[in-house]
Design brief:
It contains four helices and no strands. By secondary structure, the protein is mostly helical. The chain has one domain. The mean pLDDT is 88.
């Protein structure tokens, strides 16, 4: 049960530096922070959906995650 909590905290921590970057609009900082937040959000949702379960219950989510990870 600790993994989804840590993933959610990682999403929040990844987005916190953007508060100081609002006026600077540094594309590198924004891109990196959003990318890390997306990856951690995927981990958060995946640990909730597939907790002690290997059945595909959200095929649309699988498609979305695949496109985000490969793209």
């Amino acid at each position: 049960p600790i993994t989804p909590i840590c993933d959610f905290l990682a999403v929040v921590l990844a987005l916190l530096p953007l508060v100081s970057q609002i006026r600077k609009l540094s594309l590198a900082v924004w891109g990196y922070a959003i990318w890390i937040a997306i990856i951690n959000f995927q981990g958060f949702v995946n640990t909730i959906i597939w907790h002690n379960n290997v059945n595909i219950v959200a095929p649309v989510w699988c498609d979305i995650v695949t496109k985000l990870q490969l793209g």
